């Protein structure tokens, strides 16, 4: 089974989700969650 990584373009917007509160934002690369300040993850990146 082939798995492909998500394409990464640092200038393109993507959907990010907060690890702590679950806030979802669409941005190019957020530094921290706008609601609680926690780390964000790109939702296209698998959690494994």
TrEMBL record:
Sequence ranges assigned to domain DUF7129 in this UniProt record = 12-43
Q: Name one Pfam family in it.
A: DUF7129
Which InterPro entries would you find in this protein's record?
Answer: DUF7129
What's the superkingdom here? Answer: Archaea
Q: What is this protein called?
A: DUF7129 domain-containing protein
């Amino acid at each position: 089974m082939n798995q492909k990584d998500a394409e990464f373009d640092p200038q393109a917007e993507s959907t990010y989700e907060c690890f702590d509160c679950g806030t979802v934002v669409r941005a190019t690369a957020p530094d921290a969650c706008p609601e609680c300040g926690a780390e964000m993850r790109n939702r296209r990146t698998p959690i494994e």
